[in-house]
Amino acid sequence: MSAWKASSPYGAAAVYIGGRNRGCAQPNLTSSWVGTVGAAGWKLIPIYVGAQPPCQTSGSKERISAADAASLGASDGADAVARAKALGMRASSALYLDMEAFDDSDAACVGSVLTYVQAWDKALHARGYWAGFYGFTSSSAAVVAQAKPTTPDMPDVLWYAKYDGNDSTTTGFPFSSGLWTGHRRGHQYQVNSKESYGGASITVDRDAWDAPVAITG
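Structure (tokenized):
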């Protein structure tokens, strides 16, 4: 992080703070590490990999169902805040729910996902945090974008995956231009880019960012 702060063009890094579907343990993600990189000038984008859609084809450990969508969203939202607090990420931070791709032609599945997202968002708002959402323009992000104009408790911030190589959150924005304005957009525009700065090589995903991050320090 020190090498990249000194010589890379990047100013922020995403960190996976929790969720039963998080891909691996994060033993080095501690409040001490957060404090150190924050003091060095890095901004952090907290991701929570919560329950995944019931119609998704994956090996997710935790899935949403119609019966438990609201209760699971509420409990996962509370857990996300607790984990953020333990890392020193204070109220008014934005936490991002990671919802992977699924079949958005399945109306029952979409309904369960939206109920879960609403409950997760409400749990964050009740505790003073911003509710962000990470999803794909072809499915998960499209579902919340379609719902947002008329559905309460939709995400405050949208982080959308669209691998078009376009380093912008405005040019090529895939949804209505009136959605998530006022510095509430992130755009993942390239994945698996192997880069080296200051002698340290890492494979990263690139994002254009104009959105809230974690408040630390």
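Residues 107-126 form the longest helix (20 residues). The first strand starts at residue 12 and ends at 18.
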